[in-house]
Specification:
This protein is mainly β and 294 residues long. The protein contains three helices and 14 strands. The chain is globular.
């Protein structure tokens, strides 16, 4: 009886690991050091990545409203992919997306990058967004809801996005420059040492067209608001399983909400916890894929 009780307690103590969609392990392509993508929105850096690393619209679920078959004339994830590099210890992302209405301008007087805007999410919705959630140690940690924000805001803001990070990346950048909104207080994570973006696309605000978007993000086991000196970076290792998920928020009609929520990991709570995102394996370098001098 004691053994059974002890096992039960240990099981309850185990972290809730990422596993959506269930029984699925996605692949993360490993870039050699001399092939790391440049953040310029040019998909040529991804040309050698095999087809099995790419995910198109058929692998996403729309979770915001009930609808029938995907309407690719409204929003179309043509392809999305993630890579990694051990030396730089970064995750690299690329997506090619068509939208019938791109929204990436807001008539506001204050900076989009103020602490108020960052922490309250004042300008999160009403723009097209690529939301990426990273749980690098696969611990199933929460993004938010660590404490009652009204009673203990210092607790909530210390831990928000510390162990599982949630990034909202504006596609294209809002008002031409604002692209990185971390759901947390570690505002320094936007520095080029830790994240960067590049994009291409002949689109204007409220126009249609295709955008190619690239970014890299640095994984953390503890992302501390006070800076990198108080933080703990995660060390990416070949063969490891990390928690990772992303979605696209399509804003067509209003400046303060979105019309669709397309999630690769197909769970409506993917934004708030590592428990609800996917399993991604850090793959080895593909032998013979890159010829010397090519």
């Amino acid at each position: 009886m004691y053994l059974i009780a002890t096992v039960a307690v240990l099981l309850l103590a185990l972290p809730a690991l990422a596993h959506y969609p269930e029984d699925t392990t996605f692949k993360v392509f490993q870039f050699p050091d001399d092939r790391v993508p440049q953040m310029d929105g040019d998909a040529a850096d991804w040309a050698k990545v095999p087809a099995e690393y790419f995910y198109d619209y058929t692998q996403y679920a729309e979770l915001h409203r009930e609808r029938g078959a995907p309407d690719t004339t409204d929003f179309h994830v043509r392809r999305s992919v993630v890579g990694w590099n051990k030396t730089h210890n970064r995750l690299y992302f690329m997506a090619e997306v068509y939208d019938d209405i791109w929204r990436f301008h807001k008539d506001i007087t204050d900076s989009l990058d103020t602490p108020h805007s960052r922490l309250t999410g004042a300008h999160v919705h009403g723009a097209d967004i690529w939301e990426i959630v990273i749980d690098a140690d696969h611990g199933g940690d929460k993004v938010i809801h660590f404490a009652d924000q009204a009673e203990a805001p210092h607790v909530e803001l210390r831990h928000r996005s510390a162990y599982t990070q949630n990034y909202h990346l504006y596609i294209p950048p809002l008002n031409g420059h604002y692209w990185h909104w971390l759901w947390g207080k570690a505002l320094w994570s936007k520095e080029e040492r830790y994240s960067a973006v590049g994009w291409q696309g002949a689109v204007e605000h409220l126009s249609s067209g295709t955008v190619i978007y690239e970014c890299y993000l640095t994984p953390f086991d503890d992302l501390h608001p006070e800076g990198p000196h108080r933080s703990r970076r995660h060390s990416l290792q070949e063969g490891a399983i990390i928690g990772l998920g992303w979605s696209f928020l399509d804003a067509d009609t209003k400046e303060d909400t979105f019309d669709a929520f397309w999630a690769l990991t197909q769970h409506p709570k993917m934004y708030c916890s590592g428990e609800f995102i996917g399993d991604f394996e850090l793959m080895p370098v593909e032998e013979g894929l890159f010829e010397e001098g090519e």
